[in-house]
């Protein structure tokens, strides 16, 4: 009966739990034969990722991740996959037999991450960031509409092009 | 032991939510209270919907189980629990099994941030409204999973319809929510907030419910949300996902017994959740009517009588019906039951008159009363509007609500900028 003061949120336990979930989800995505199971595993991965954003004191990014990816994009994924004839998909060959290339690419990517971490140790913060998460949303807005205004607008223009392209392709007569 | 007692009593003097104060014990108590409250609300809604719908159609509705069918929800629950639990042979077992739980999880988790009062929320997140929208959007996953895993035609079509509908209306819903959030930044500091408690407090500071702010912009945004939330919860007139004349029961056709009741619970839980978003954003959350116009201790005193009076009124309705009961011996037990129910309601009303109780309870009362008004609207819609066709539904979402939402958002931002400048 000895209540602790306020437990820290970003404990190693949660980090390992969440990243373990993400890894299991990721492996399931590429190994399941049934496409719907893969999509559901991907959703688990995305949810765990948003929880990791929370641990990094970025609640806004976490919330947007859930709304956009788990609630929006993945539903559209499922929407399409559900219409695929699963029985036929199960009989098809699942992988291109290119284990060697795949392994090489994975090793190269892993090596790159390790190299970045080893070389650039100086830029990583030494301990957990403890900035006030209360104004995280305001900070994001200040950044997007301040120094990075141009890049932000360019990105939204790209999205607009994609939307118009989708409409043009879907409609026979405009 | 004494330290533990101090840990428990220490929270009572704080002015934060249990989550904000980091008090695990009270957080658990609040979670249990909210869970129980929502479940009781679902039970009440079950009875009320059948009764109100029946009276709208000039029927009596359930009358046999208990006086005026008051025990009908319990009989229903018992029936559902005793029913055989059927799983289709060709169903995808894991997904079929987990789908109802995901829907329920999504429907109940959002209540973590619902502000029943300035301190009466389980916790206050700085992304509260984003959390609510995000988690409630996860329920569509459960519906899609249920429809697909049943491995049957009607559920699949129902799930497809429901996912298309929910994704479309989420856009309009999000736009109207954003315009309400823009209004929270119309204060001295010029910074808005996403926290549910913060939003209501802004309405108190700005002395205006957001539905009346920038008239008619707030009203239009509220209207968009009010339409979109009916579509989001798959209720009539947008209940194409379970249009019984076309699809039997839509995505939960193959579900029976306990699993079906989980879907039922989630549907009503989600209705309350979106209603509480609407109440928080536009109708002043826990604030009593006219907190500024009719300010002062006298008015505070008068409004603090409302919860008690409401329960006394319910008790009085019960006694009125006791008097109208047939005087035949067959009806004796039912008459006594109704009288006891009336006495209980009246006693609750009397307890609510005690100042110490009424001060603590009135935020919760006003919030629940506003949510209850929305729940009545849901039933009213179901009794009034014919079901939309699917293309009409899509046209409504994309060609009416979405442009309207965009326009309101731009105008709100413009008017807000002008007001800040001047």
The topology string of helices and strands of chain B comes to HHHHHHHHHHHHHHHHH
**Number of helical segments of chain A?**
7
How are helices and strands ordered from N to C of chain A?
A: HHHHHHH
Per the CATH scheme, the topology name of the largest domain in chain A is: Four Helix Bundle (Hemerythrin (Met), subunit A)
The SS-based structural class of chain A is: mainly alpha
Task: State the major sheet of chain B.
Answer: none
- CATH homologous superfamily (4th level) name of the largest domain in chain A: NADH-ubiquinone/plastoquinone oxidoreductase chain 6, subunit NuoJ
Count of helical stretches of chain B? 17
Please identify the oligomeric state: heterodimer
How much of the sequence lies in strands of chain B comes to: under 5%
Largest sheet of chain A: none
Based on Cα principal axes, name the global outline of chain B: globular
- Provide the structure class of chain B: mainly alpha
Give the percentage of residues in beta strands of chain A: under 5%
- Mean pLDDT of chain B equals 85
Task: Name the CATH architecture of the largest domain in chain A.
Answer: Up-down Bundle
The dominant shape of chain A is globular
**What count of structural domains of chain A?**
2
Helix content estimate of chain B? 55-70%
Mean pLDDT of chain A: 81
Strand tally of chain A is 0
């Amino acid at each position: 009966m000895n209540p602790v003061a306020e437990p820290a949120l970003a404990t190693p336990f949660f980090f390992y739990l969440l990243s373990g979930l993400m890894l299991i989800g990721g492996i399931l995505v590429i190994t399941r034969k049934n496409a719907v199971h893969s999509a559901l595993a991907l959703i688990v991965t995305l949810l765990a990722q948003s929880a990791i954003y929370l641990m990094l004191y970025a609640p806004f990014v976490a919330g947007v991740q859930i709304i956009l990816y788990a609630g929006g994009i993945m539903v559209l994924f499922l929407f399409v996959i559900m219409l695929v004839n699963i029985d036929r998909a199960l009989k098809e060959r699942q992988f291109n037999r290119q284990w060697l290339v795949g392994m090489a690419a994975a090793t190269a990517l892993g090596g790159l991450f390790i190299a970045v971490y080893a070389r650039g140790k100086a830029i990583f913060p030494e301990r957990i960031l403890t900035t006030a998460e209360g104004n995280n949303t305001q900070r994001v807005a200040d950044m997007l509409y301040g120094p990075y205004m141009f890049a932000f607008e360019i990105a939204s223009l790209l999205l607009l092009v994609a939307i118009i392209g989708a409409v043009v392709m879907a409609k026979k007569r405009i | 032991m004494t330290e533990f007692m101090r840990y428990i009593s220490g929270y009572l003097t704080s002015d934060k939510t249990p989550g904000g104060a980091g008090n695990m014990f009270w957080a658990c108590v609040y979670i249990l209270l909210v869970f129980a409250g929502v479940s009781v609300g679902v039970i009440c809604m079950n009875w009320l919907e059948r009764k109100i719908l029946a009276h709208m159609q000039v029927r009596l509705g359930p009358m046999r189980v208990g006086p005026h069918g008051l025990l009908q929800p319990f009989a229903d629950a018992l029936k559902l629990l005793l029913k055989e639990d059927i799983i289709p042979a060709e169903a995808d077992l894991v997904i079929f099994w987990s789908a109802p739980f995901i829907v329920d999880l999504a429907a109940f988790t959002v209540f973590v941030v619902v502000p029943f009062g300035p301190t009466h929320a389980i916790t206050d997140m700085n992304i509260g409204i984003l959390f609510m929208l995000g988690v409630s959007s996860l329920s569509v996953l459960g519906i899609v999973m249920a429809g697909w895993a049943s491995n049957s035609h009607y559920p699949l079509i129902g799930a497809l319809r429901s996912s298309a509908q929910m994704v479309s209306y989420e856009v309009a819903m999000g736009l109207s929510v954003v315009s309400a959030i823009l209004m929270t930044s119309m204060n001295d500091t010029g910074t808005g907030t996403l926290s549910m408690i913060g939003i209501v407090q802004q309405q108190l500071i700005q002395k205006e419910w957001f539905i009346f702010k920038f008239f008619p912009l707030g009203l239009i945004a509220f209207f968009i949300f009010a339409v979109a939330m009916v579509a989001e919860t798959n209720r009539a007139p947008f209940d194409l996902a379970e249009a019984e004349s076309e699809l039997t029961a839509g995505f939960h056709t193959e579900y029976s017994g306990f699993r079906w009741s989980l879907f039922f619970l989630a549907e009503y839980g989600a209705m309350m959740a979106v209603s509480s978003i609407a109440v928080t954003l536009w109708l002043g959350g826990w604030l009593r009517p006219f907190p500024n116009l009719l300010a002062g201790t006298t008015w505070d005193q008068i409004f603090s009588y409302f919860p008690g009076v409401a329960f006394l009124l319910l008790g009085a309705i019960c006694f009125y019906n006791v008097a109208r009961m047939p005087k035949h011996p067959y009806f004796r037990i039912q008459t006594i039951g109704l009288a006891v129910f009336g006495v209980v309601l009246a006693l609750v009303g009397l307890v609510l008159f005690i100042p110490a109780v009424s001060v603590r309870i009135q935020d919760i009362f006003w919030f629940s009363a506003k949510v209850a008004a929305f729940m009545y609207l849901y039933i009213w819609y179901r009794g009034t509007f014919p079901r939309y066709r699917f293309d009409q539904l899509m046209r409504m979402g994309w060609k009416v609500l979405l442009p309207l939402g965009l326009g309101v958002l731009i105008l709100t931002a413009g008017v807000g900028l002008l007001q800040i400048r001047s």
